[in-house]
Amino acid sequence: MRRSIPYMQIRGGSSKGLYFHAEDLPDDPEQRDRIILGAICGVGPDDIRQIDGLGGADPLTSKAGIISRSKRPDADLDYEFVQVVVGKGVTDRTQNCGNILAGVVPFALETGLIKADSPRTALKVFMKNSNAVCRVTVETPDGQITYKGTTRIDGVPGFSAPVICEYYDIAGGTCGSVFPTGNRTDIIDGVEATCIDAGMPLVIIRAADLGRSGYESRDYLDNDQELKDRLESIRLLAGKMMNLGDVQQKAVPKMTLIAPAGNGGVISTRSFIPHKVHAAVGVLAAVTAAAACVAEGTTASKIAAVPPEGSYLSVEHPSGEISISLDFTDTGGELTIASAGVVRTARSLSCGEVYLPEDL
Fold this sequence. Notes:
16% of the residues lie in helices and 34% in strands. The protein is an alpha+beta fold. The protein folds into two domains: 3-162 and 345-356, Diaminopimelate Epimerase, Chain A, domain 1 (Roll); 186-337, Diaminopimelate Epimerase, Chain A, domain 1. A hairpin with a 2-residue loop joins strand 14 (313-317) and strand 15.
């Protein structure tokens, strides 16, 4: 007997994923995971091609968002992010995703979960993975969402309507503190690194300290197995230091190589997620990298070109840059981030029912 589940597929920022109503999924987390793996991977959850499912055989297209109306007084919607680890047949919820977040409000409006205002709709989204709230504003002229606009973000072709994301209280949401090791720099496997969680757990290393420039292409770094093996060795050690435990099957912490900015930004990044190089950079990874740039004593602060206070922080990546607004204070003893802002775009791609493997 053929079974199916309602879904939407939405491009959020420079990622895309499947979006589900929480009420359409079972309450049991293991059963939920089996359904998500079945939808994205099909009958072969460890198939790196994802040929039997709706996934795109890449970490950026193997994602899911689970959405519901929130019962919290400080939020309109609840959002849980699920990363499918490509080729592993497992899911990971230890991280958040700011790109998939950009599609949460469009999903809620498209499916009638929330009614739109005009000319814009602003909703507060509780991000269950990091226990933080983001205010998301989308364009809804005449009470209808539009994806047409003049906003362009690097890593995505064309122009779209803006999706404005304002994050609050995101620092330390996964690891418990901004600098979970208690230090702004550590020596891990002989390399100086900053372990930081300002929305996304990162291990930030200067590319030059590993004999690389930091300006290599995505494909070049993806084929640099010696580098990837070294980074994984560091990542496994850093995971335990960052209160994440054994991270062999987890997508965090993400490894980030940095170099001085080459095009007027604050820093240049190459982000591993965690074993493939990001075509651009994740939203919350960019926020965290920007936070490392403004915090004294980090690996990033020593090479970052920080603009005057109040300016946008442009984080460069293989496809261009992403601009971050950061409201922070750094007393030297503690880095406090009141809010972070970023502009994304989104577009709904398809909706309907995804058929699940019969032996699920």
